[in-house]
Amino acid sequence: MNRITKNLYSILAICLLMAMMSCKKWLDIQPEDKFTEKQIFSSVEGISDAINSVYIDMGKTKLYGANLTSTTLEILAQRYNVSGVHSLTKYQSYDYENKDVKAELDVIWTKSYINVVNLNKFIANLDVYSGVLDGKTDSLFRGEAYGLRAFLQFDLLRMYGPNYNTADSTKTSIPYYTKAGTEIGDLLPANVVIQKIIADLQTAEAMLGNDPVRRSGITNVSEQGFLNLRNYRMNYFAIKGLQARVNMYRGDRVTASAAAKVVINNASKFPWITPEKILTDKLDPDRVFSTEILFGLQSLDLYDNYRAYFAPDVEDRNVLAPLDARLKTVFENNENDYRYNPNWILTGIAGKSYKTFFKYADISNKKLIYRFTVPLLRLSEMYLIAAEADQNVSYLNTVRNKRGLLDLPGTAVLLTELQKEYQKEFFGEGQLWFYYKRRNITSVPNPLVASGNLTVNLSRYVFPLPLSELNPR
Predict the structure, then answer these.
(1) In the CATH scheme, what is the code of domain 6-306+357-470?
(2) What is the structure's pLDDT at 165?
(3) pTM for the full model?
(4) What DSSP designation does 229 have?
Protein backbone atom coordinates (compact mmCIF):
# COMPACT_ATOMS: atom_id res chain seq x y z
CA MET A 1 0.00 0.00 0.00
CA ASN A 2 2.84 2.39 0.82
CA ARG A 3 4.77 1.66 -2.38
CA ILE A 4 3.92 3.22 -5.70
CA THR A 5 6.12 4.13 -8.61
CA LYS A 6 6.70 7.71 -9.75
CA ASN A 7 5.28 6.65 -13.11
CA LEU A 8 1.95 5.69 -11.52
CA TYR A 9 1.78 8.99 -9.63
CA SER A 10 2.23 10.79 -12.96
CA ILE A 11 -0.47 8.73 -14.66
CA LEU A 12 -2.94 9.36 -11.85
CA ALA A 13 -2.16 13.07 -11.74
CA ILE A 14 -2.60 13.41 -15.50
CA CYS A 15 -5.88 11.49 -15.41
CA LEU A 16 -7.28 13.63 -12.62
CA LEU A 17 -6.02 16.86 -14.19
CA MET A 18 -7.65 16.05 -17.49
CA ALA A 19 -10.93 15.25 -15.79
CA MET A 20 -10.99 18.45 -13.76
CA MET A 21 -9.87 20.74 -16.59
CA SER A 22 -12.28 19.39 -19.17
CA CYS A 23 -15.37 21.49 -19.83
CA LYS A 24 -17.18 18.28 -20.80
CA LYS A 25 -18.62 15.71 -18.43
CA TRP A 26 -16.37 13.96 -15.95
CA LEU A 27 -16.47 10.74 -17.96
CA ASP A 28 -14.76 12.38 -20.92
CA ILE A 29 -11.33 11.13 -19.86
CA GLN A 30 -8.96 10.12 -22.62
CA PRO A 31 -7.53 6.59 -22.31
CA GLU A 32 -4.04 6.19 -20.95
CA ASP A 33 -1.26 5.64 -23.45
CA LYS A 34 -1.48 2.01 -24.56
CA PHE A 35 2.25 1.42 -24.40
CA THR A 36 2.38 2.73 -20.84
CA GLU A 37 -0.69 0.70 -19.94
CA LYS A 38 0.93 -2.44 -21.32
CA GLN A 39 4.03 -1.75 -19.26
CA ILE A 40 1.97 -1.34 -16.09
CA PHE A 41 0.08 -4.60 -16.57
CA SER A 42 3.16 -6.61 -17.53
CA SER A 43 4.18 -7.37 -13.94
CA VAL A 44 2.66 -8.20 -10.57
CA GLU A 45 4.25 -5.08 -9.11
CA GLY A 46 2.82 -2.86 -11.85
CA ILE A 47 -0.67 -4.31 -11.42
CA SER A 48 -0.41 -3.87 -7.66
CA ASP A 49 0.63 -0.25 -8.17
CA ALA A 50 -2.32 0.31 -10.50
CA ILE A 51 -4.90 -0.57 -7.88
CA ASN A 52 -2.83 1.15 -5.18
CA SER A 53 -3.33 4.39 -7.08
CA VAL A 54 -7.06 4.13 -6.31
CA TYR A 55 -6.45 3.55 -2.61
CA ILE A 56 -4.10 6.53 -2.56
CA ASP A 57 -6.56 8.83 -4.30
CA MET A 58 -9.40 7.75 -2.00
CA GLY A 59 -7.23 8.83 0.92
CA LYS A 60 -6.82 12.39 -0.32
CA THR A 61 -8.51 15.43 1.21
CA LYS A 62 -11.36 15.71 -1.29
CA LEU A 63 -12.56 12.21 -0.49
CA TYR A 64 -11.86 10.11 2.61
CA GLY A 65 -8.84 12.09 3.78
CA ALA A 66 -11.23 14.78 5.09
CA ASN A 67 -14.48 15.54 3.22
CA LEU A 68 -16.10 12.14 3.75
CA THR A 69 -14.70 11.57 7.23
CA SER A 70 -13.63 14.44 9.49
CA THR A 71 -14.84 17.65 7.83
CA THR A 72 -17.80 18.04 5.44
CA LEU A 73 -19.95 15.09 6.55
CA GLU A 74 -19.27 15.79 10.22
CA ILE A 75 -20.28 19.43 9.86
CA LEU A 76 -23.50 18.32 8.16
CA ALA A 77 -24.08 15.96 11.09
CA GLN A 78 -23.92 19.05 13.36
CA ARG A 79 -20.76 17.87 15.12
CA TYR A 80 -18.95 21.19 15.45
CA ASN A 81 -19.69 24.75 16.51
CA VAL A 82 -19.22 26.60 13.22
CA SER A 83 -21.60 29.47 13.86
CA GLY A 84 -21.34 33.16 13.03
CA VAL A 85 -18.18 34.16 11.19
CA HIS A 86 -16.82 30.64 10.90
CA SER A 87 -15.52 29.95 7.40
CA LEU A 88 -17.60 26.75 7.05
CA THR A 89 -20.94 27.89 8.48
CA LYS A 90 -22.64 27.47 5.08
CA TYR A 91 -22.21 23.71 5.42
CA GLN A 92 -23.82 23.63 8.85
CA SER A 93 -26.88 25.46 7.49
CA TYR A 94 -27.12 23.05 4.52
CA ASP A 95 -26.73 25.88 2.03
CA TYR A 96 -26.25 23.63 -0.97
CA GLU A 97 -26.73 26.58 -3.33
CA ASN A 98 -23.71 28.40 -1.94
CA LYS A 99 -21.04 28.41 -4.64
CA ASP A 100 -18.31 27.02 -2.36
CA VAL A 101 -20.51 24.26 -0.98
CA LYS A 102 -21.78 23.41 -4.45
CA ALA A 103 -18.23 23.24 -5.79
CA GLU A 104 -17.11 20.92 -2.97
CA LEU A 105 -20.03 18.55 -3.49
CA ASP A 106 -19.27 18.54 -7.21
CA VAL A 107 -15.65 17.56 -6.47
CA ILE A 108 -16.79 14.68 -4.25
CA TRP A 109 -18.98 13.38 -7.07
CA THR A 110 -16.31 13.82 -9.74
CA LYS A 111 -13.41 12.31 -7.84
CA SER A 112 -15.47 9.35 -6.66
CA TYR A 113 -16.53 8.47 -10.18
CA ILE A 114 -13.02 8.95 -11.56
CA ASN A 115 -11.92 6.23 -9.16
CA VAL A 116 -14.82 4.05 -10.30
CA VAL A 117 -13.71 4.56 -13.91
CA ASN A 118 -10.16 3.59 -12.99
CA LEU A 119 -11.39 0.48 -11.19
CA ASN A 120 -13.41 -0.55 -14.23
CA LYS A 121 -10.33 -0.02 -16.41
CA PHE A 122 -8.33 -2.08 -13.95
CA ILE A 123 -10.79 -5.00 -14.08
CA ALA A 124 -10.93 -4.85 -17.89
CA ASN A 125 -7.13 -4.78 -18.17
CA LEU A 126 -6.81 -7.91 -16.04
CA ASP A 127 -8.58 -9.64 -18.95
CA VAL A 128 -6.66 -7.82 -21.69
CA TYR A 129 -3.29 -8.61 -20.11
CA SER A 130 -4.18 -12.02 -18.68
CA GLY A 131 -1.49 -14.51 -17.77
CA VAL A 132 0.65 -12.12 -15.76
CA LEU A 133 -0.95 -13.08 -12.44
CA ASP A 134 -1.47 -16.56 -11.04
CA GLY A 135 -5.08 -17.52 -10.40
CA LYS A 136 -5.09 -16.73 -6.66
CA THR A 137 -3.53 -13.28 -7.10
CA ASP A 138 -5.82 -12.43 -10.00
CA SER A 139 -8.86 -13.35 -7.88
CA LEU A 140 -7.55 -11.30 -4.96
CA PHE A 141 -7.06 -8.16 -7.05
CA ARG A 142 -10.42 -8.55 -8.79
CA GLY A 143 -12.16 -9.00 -5.47
CA GLU A 144 -10.60 -5.82 -4.14
CA ALA A 145 -11.60 -3.89 -7.27
CA TYR A 146 -15.22 -5.09 -7.20
CA GLY A 147 -15.43 -4.29 -3.50
CA LEU A 148 -13.98 -0.80 -3.93
CA ARG A 149 -16.34 -0.13 -6.84
CA ALA A 150 -19.30 -1.05 -4.63
CA PHE A 151 -17.93 0.92 -1.66
CA LEU A 152 -17.54 4.16 -3.63
CA GLN A 153 -20.88 3.98 -5.38
CA PHE A 154 -22.72 3.02 -2.20
CA ASP A 155 -21.41 6.17 -0.52
CA LEU A 156 -22.45 8.18 -3.57
CA LEU A 157 -25.94 6.69 -3.26
CA ARG A 158 -26.01 7.55 0.45
CA MET A 159 -25.08 11.14 -0.33
CA TYR A 160 -26.87 11.94 -3.60
CA GLY A 161 -29.65 9.36 -3.50
CA PRO A 162 -33.07 9.69 -1.82
CA ASN A 163 -33.86 8.83 1.78
CA TYR A 164 -34.08 5.09 1.32
CA ASN A 165 -37.37 3.64 2.49
CA THR A 166 -40.36 1.85 1.01
CA ALA A 167 -41.82 5.02 -0.49
CA ASP A 168 -38.63 6.57 -1.81
CA SER A 169 -36.43 3.61 -2.78
CA THR A 170 -37.73 3.73 -6.36
CA LYS A 171 -36.80 7.39 -6.85
CA THR A 172 -34.12 8.27 -9.38
CA SER A 173 -30.67 8.48 -7.81
CA ILE A 174 -27.26 8.00 -9.43
CA PRO A 175 -25.68 6.06 -12.30
CA TYR A 176 -23.88 2.79 -11.49
CA TYR A 177 -20.84 2.04 -13.61
CA THR A 178 -19.60 -1.49 -14.17
CA LYS A 179 -17.72 -1.17 -17.46
CA ALA A 180 -14.71 0.74 -18.66
CA GLY A 181 -15.54 3.44 -21.19
CA THR A 182 -16.83 6.96 -21.53
CA GLU A 183 -20.53 6.37 -22.16
CA ILE A 184 -22.71 8.35 -19.75
CA GLY A 185 -24.81 6.05 -17.59
CA ASP A 186 -28.50 6.48 -16.87
CA LEU A 187 -29.66 7.82 -13.53
CA LEU A 188 -31.11 4.70 -11.91
CA PRO A 189 -33.75 4.16 -9.24
CA ALA A 190 -32.12 3.81 -5.82
CA ASN A 191 -33.30 0.23 -5.36
CA VAL A 192 -31.72 -0.75 -8.69
CA VAL A 193 -28.42 0.80 -7.58
CA ILE A 194 -28.63 -1.17 -4.32
CA GLN A 195 -29.10 -4.41 -6.26
CA LYS A 196 -26.01 -3.66 -8.35
CA ILE A 197 -24.02 -2.91 -5.21
CA ILE A 198 -25.14 -6.20 -3.66
CA ALA A 199 -24.20 -8.06 -6.85
CA ASP A 200 -20.72 -6.53 -6.86
CA LEU A 201 -20.25 -7.46 -3.21
CA GLN A 202 -21.33 -11.04 -3.89
CA THR A 203 -18.75 -11.22 -6.69
CA ALA A 204 -16.10 -9.71 -4.44
CA GLU A 205 -16.90 -12.15 -1.63
CA ALA A 206 -16.48 -15.13 -3.97
CA MET A 207 -13.20 -13.82 -5.36
CA LEU A 208 -11.82 -13.10 -1.89
CA GLY A 209 -12.68 -16.55 -0.59
CA ASN A 210 -8.98 -17.37 -0.21
CA ASP A 211 -8.01 -13.99 1.22
CA PRO A 212 -5.14 -14.64 3.67
CA VAL A 213 -6.95 -12.48 6.24
CA ARG A 214 -9.33 -15.40 6.78
CA ARG A 215 -6.47 -17.67 7.89
CA SER A 216 -4.01 -15.45 9.68
CA GLY A 217 -5.73 -12.14 10.32
CA ILE A 218 -4.43 -8.74 9.32
CA THR A 219 -0.73 -9.17 10.14
CA ASN A 220 0.42 -11.46 7.35
CA VAL A 221 4.13 -11.50 6.57
CA SER A 222 4.95 -11.66 2.88
CA GLU A 223 7.35 -10.10 0.42
CA GLN A 224 4.29 -9.17 -1.61
CA GLY A 225 2.95 -6.03 0.04
CA PHE A 226 -0.67 -6.57 -1.00
CA LEU A 227 -0.80 -9.70 1.18
CA ASN A 228 0.18 -7.77 4.31
CA LEU A 229 -1.97 -5.58 6.57
CA ARG A 230 -5.09 -6.64 4.75
CA ASN A 231 -7.33 -4.25 6.68
CA TYR A 232 -5.74 -1.42 4.68
CA ARG A 233 -7.14 -3.07 1.56
CA MET A 234 -10.64 -4.21 0.61
CA ASN A 235 -10.44 -7.65 2.21
CA TYR A 236 -12.90 -10.49 2.79
CA PHE A 237 -14.14 -9.26 6.18
CA ALA A 238 -14.45 -5.70 4.88
CA ILE A 239 -16.78 -7.12 2.21
CA LYS A 240 -18.89 -8.84 4.87
CA GLY A 241 -18.93 -5.62 6.89
CA LEU A 242 -19.99 -3.64 3.85
CA GLN A 243 -22.73 -6.18 3.13
CA ALA A 244 -24.00 -5.61 6.67
CA ARG A 245 -23.92 -1.83 6.20
CA VAL A 246 -25.64 -1.94 2.78
CA ASN A 247 -28.40 -4.32 3.86
CA MET A 248 -29.05 -2.33 7.02
CA TYR A 249 -29.40 0.75 4.83
CA ARG A 250 -31.98 -0.96 2.61
CA GLY A 251 -33.92 -2.25 5.63
CA ASP A 252 -33.03 -5.95 5.31
CA ARG A 253 -32.18 -6.59 8.93
CA VAL A 254 -31.95 -10.36 8.63
CA THR A 255 -29.29 -10.26 5.91
CA ALA A 256 -27.49 -7.39 7.63
CA SER A 257 -27.33 -9.32 10.89
CA ALA A 258 -26.04 -12.46 9.20
CA ALA A 259 -23.22 -10.56 7.48
CA ALA A 260 -22.30 -8.68 10.65
CA LYS A 261 -22.11 -11.92 12.61
CA VAL A 262 -19.58 -13.39 10.17
CA VAL A 263 -17.28 -10.58 11.28
CA ILE A 264 -18.28 -10.85 14.95
CA ASN A 265 -17.52 -14.58 14.91
CA ASN A 266 -14.04 -13.69 13.66
CA ALA A 267 -13.54 -10.74 15.99
CA SER A 268 -10.26 -12.17 17.30
CA LYS A 269 -8.69 -11.24 13.95
CA PHE A 270 -9.47 -7.57 14.71
CA PRO A 271 -8.48 -7.22 18.39
CA TRP A 272 -10.21 -4.59 20.50
CA ILE A 273 -8.02 -1.68 21.58
CA THR A 274 -6.39 -2.12 24.97
CA PRO A 275 -6.31 0.54 27.71
CA GLU A 276 -2.52 0.45 27.54
CA LYS A 277 -2.46 1.44 23.90
CA ILE A 278 -4.95 4.28 24.15
CA LEU A 279 -4.56 5.52 27.75
CA THR A 280 -1.06 4.65 28.90
CA ASP A 281 1.00 5.26 25.78
CA LYS A 282 1.27 9.04 25.82
CA LEU A 283 3.75 9.37 22.93
CA ASP A 284 2.10 7.04 20.44
CA PRO A 285 -1.54 6.51 21.46
CA ASP A 286 -3.56 4.50 18.98
CA ARG A 287 -6.45 6.98 18.88
CA VAL A 288 -7.95 5.44 15.73
CA PHE A 289 -8.15 1.97 17.37
CA SER A 290 -6.29 0.60 14.36
CA THR A 291 -6.45 -3.09 15.28
CA GLU A 292 -10.27 -2.96 15.11
CA ILE A 293 -10.39 -1.56 11.59
CA LEU A 294 -11.95 -3.83 8.97
CA PHE A 295 -11.03 -1.39 6.22
CA GLY A 296 -9.11 1.84 6.39
CA LEU A 297 -6.84 4.02 4.31
CA GLN A 298 -3.58 5.79 4.83
CA SER A 299 -3.99 9.46 4.01
CA LEU A 300 -0.81 11.40 3.32
CA ASP A 301 -2.94 14.56 3.70
CA LEU A 302 -4.01 13.63 7.23
CA TYR A 303 -1.70 15.87 9.22
CA ASP A 304 -2.02 18.83 6.88
CA ASN A 305 -5.77 18.63 7.46
CA TYR A 306 -5.29 18.25 11.19
CA ARG A 307 -3.16 21.39 11.28
CA ALA A 308 -5.66 23.26 9.10
CA TYR A 309 -8.86 22.33 10.95
CA PHE A 310 -8.27 20.73 14.35
CA ALA A 311 -4.98 21.81 15.93
CA PRO A 312 -5.42 23.95 19.06
CA ASP A 313 -3.58 26.89 17.49
CA VAL A 314 -6.08 27.17 14.61
CA GLU A 315 -8.05 30.42 14.93
CA ASP A 316 -11.65 30.20 16.06
CA ARG A 317 -13.10 31.13 12.66
CA ASN A 318 -11.51 28.03 11.10
CA VAL A 319 -11.19 25.43 13.85
CA LEU A 320 -13.54 22.44 13.89
CA ALA A 321 -14.48 21.76 17.51
CA PRO A 322 -17.70 21.44 19.50
CA LEU A 323 -18.80 23.61 22.37
CA ASP A 324 -17.22 22.13 25.47
CA ALA A 325 -20.60 21.74 27.17
CA ARG A 326 -22.01 19.98 24.11
CA LEU A 327 -19.02 17.62 24.00
CA LYS A 328 -19.60 16.70 27.64
CA THR A 329 -23.24 15.98 26.81
CA VAL A 330 -22.25 13.67 23.95
CA PHE A 331 -19.95 11.64 26.19
CA GLU A 332 -22.35 11.92 29.15
CA ASN A 333 -19.54 13.40 31.28
CA ASN A 334 -18.00 9.95 31.49
CA GLU A 335 -14.24 10.34 31.98
CA ASN A 336 -13.78 6.55 31.73
CA ASP A 337 -14.75 6.44 28.05
CA TYR A 338 -11.66 5.63 25.95
CA ARG A 339 -13.04 7.80 23.17
CA TYR A 340 -13.23 10.94 25.28
CA ASN A 341 -10.12 12.22 27.06
CA PRO A 342 -7.50 10.70 24.70
CA ASN A 343 -9.14 12.37 21.69
CA TRP A 344 -10.28 15.64 23.27
CA ILE A 345 -7.74 17.78 25.12
CA LEU A 346 -7.95 21.20 26.74
CA THR A 347 -4.58 22.79 25.96
CA GLY A 348 -5.23 26.50 26.58
CA ILE A 349 -3.27 27.21 23.40
CA ALA A 350 -4.34 30.39 21.57
CA GLY A 351 -6.59 31.19 24.51
CA LYS A 352 -8.96 28.31 23.83
CA SER A 353 -11.28 27.51 26.70
CA TYR A 354 -12.63 24.41 24.97
CA LYS A 355 -11.18 21.03 24.04
CA THR A 356 -9.88 20.36 20.56
CA PHE A 357 -9.85 17.14 18.54
CA PHE A 358 -6.65 15.07 18.71
CA LYS A 359 -7.83 11.86 17.03
CA TYR A 360 -5.78 12.61 13.91
CA ALA A 361 -2.87 14.35 15.60
CA ASP A 362 0.58 13.02 14.71
CA ILE A 363 2.42 10.54 16.91
CA SER A 364 6.06 10.26 17.93
CA ASN A 365 7.06 6.99 16.26
CA LYS A 366 6.96 7.68 12.53
CA LYS A 367 7.17 3.97 11.66
CA LEU A 368 3.96 2.81 13.32
CA ILE A 369 1.42 1.58 10.78
CA TYR A 370 -1.48 3.49 12.30
CA ARG A 371 0.22 6.78 11.52
CA PHE A 372 -1.77 8.42 8.66
CA THR A 373 -4.66 5.99 9.24
CA VAL A 374 -8.28 6.93 8.46
CA PRO A 375 -10.86 4.30 9.57
CA LEU A 376 -13.69 3.62 7.11
CA LEU A 377 -15.23 0.41 8.45
CA ARG A 378 -14.66 -1.01 11.91
CA LEU A 379 -15.51 -3.99 14.11
CA SER A 380 -17.69 -2.00 16.50
CA GLU A 381 -20.11 -1.08 13.71
CA MET A 382 -20.85 -4.78 13.24
CA TYR A 383 -21.89 -5.07 16.88
CA LEU A 384 -24.08 -1.96 16.60
CA ILE A 385 -25.71 -3.33 13.44
CA ALA A 386 -26.34 -6.70 15.13
CA ALA A 387 -27.79 -4.92 18.17
CA GLU A 388 -30.22 -2.94 16.02
CA ALA A 389 -31.08 -5.75 13.62
CA ASP A 390 -31.70 -8.33 16.36
CA GLN A 391 -32.95 -5.84 18.99
CA ASN A 392 -30.33 -7.35 21.29
CA VAL A 393 -28.72 -5.02 23.81
CA SER A 394 -25.89 -7.47 24.57
CA TYR A 395 -24.08 -6.50 21.34
CA LEU A 396 -24.33 -2.86 22.34
CA ASN A 397 -23.01 -3.65 25.80
CA THR A 398 -20.00 -5.38 24.26
CA VAL A 399 -19.02 -2.14 22.52
CA ARG A 400 -19.58 -0.16 25.72
CA ASN A 401 -17.47 -2.59 27.76
CA LYS A 402 -14.64 -2.36 25.22
CA ARG A 403 -14.74 1.43 25.62
CA GLY A 404 -14.45 1.35 29.41
CA LEU A 405 -18.18 1.66 30.14
CA LEU A 406 -20.61 -0.47 32.13
CA ASP A 407 -23.60 -2.41 30.82
CA LEU A 408 -26.75 -0.43 30.24
CA PRO A 409 -29.55 -0.78 32.81
CA GLY A 410 -32.43 -3.04 31.95
CA THR A 411 -34.69 0.00 31.50
CA ALA A 412 -32.56 1.43 28.67
CA VAL A 413 -34.26 2.14 25.33
CA LEU A 414 -32.16 0.38 22.69
CA LEU A 415 -32.57 2.82 19.79
CA THR A 416 -31.89 5.79 22.06
CA GLU A 417 -28.70 4.20 23.33
CA LEU A 418 -27.64 3.13 19.84
CA GLN A 419 -27.81 6.72 18.64
CA LYS A 420 -25.67 7.80 21.59
CA GLU A 421 -23.06 5.19 20.69
CA TYR A 422 -22.95 6.26 17.04
CA GLN A 423 -22.35 9.81 18.26
CA LYS A 424 -19.44 8.68 20.44
CA GLU A 425 -17.92 5.91 18.36
CA PHE A 426 -17.53 7.52 14.94
CA PHE A 427 -16.37 11.05 15.71
CA GLY A 428 -14.31 12.23 12.76
CA GLU A 429 -15.30 9.26 10.58
CA GLY A 430 -18.37 10.59 8.75
CA GLN A 431 -20.70 7.75 9.71
CA LEU A 432 -23.07 9.70 11.96
CA TRP A 433 -24.54 11.68 9.06
CA PHE A 434 -25.22 8.42 7.20
CA TYR A 435 -26.82 6.97 10.35
CA TYR A 436 -29.13 9.96 10.70
CA LYS A 437 -30.13 9.67 7.06
CA ARG A 438 -30.78 5.92 7.26
CA ARG A 439 -32.95 6.37 10.32
CA ASN A 440 -34.73 9.45 8.85
CA ILE A 441 -33.84 11.39 11.99
CA THR A 442 -35.10 14.97 11.93
CA SER A 443 -34.18 16.03 15.47
CA VAL A 444 -30.42 16.12 16.09
CA PRO A 445 -28.28 17.69 18.83
CA ASN A 446 -27.87 21.44 18.33
CA PRO A 447 -24.11 22.13 18.17
CA LEU A 448 -24.54 25.80 19.05
CA VAL A 449 -25.87 25.21 22.57
CA ALA A 450 -25.03 22.91 25.46
CA SER A 451 -28.26 20.92 25.21
CA GLY A 452 -31.38 20.70 23.09
CA ASN A 453 -32.01 19.71 19.50
CA LEU A 454 -32.55 21.34 16.15
CA THR A 455 -34.84 20.21 13.34
CA VAL A 456 -33.34 18.91 10.10
CA ASN A 457 -35.60 18.64 7.07
CA LEU A 458 -35.24 15.22 5.47
CA SER A 459 -34.50 16.89 2.12
CA ARG A 460 -31.19 18.14 3.61
CA TYR A 461 -29.92 14.55 3.61
CA VAL A 462 -29.94 14.52 -0.20
CA PHE A 463 -27.10 16.29 -1.99
CA PRO A 464 -28.13 17.95 -5.25
CA LEU A 465 -26.69 16.32 -8.35
CA PRO A 466 -23.96 18.44 -9.98
CA LEU A 467 -25.17 20.64 -12.84
CA SER A 468 -22.43 19.14 -14.99
CA GLU A 469 -24.15 15.80 -14.53
CA LEU A 470 -27.67 16.96 -15.33
CA ASN A 471 -27.14 19.34 -18.23
CA PRO A 472 -27.16 18.01 -20.82
CA ARG A 473 -27.96 14.35 -20.25
Answers:
(1) 1.25.40.390
(2) 82
(3) 0.93
(4) S
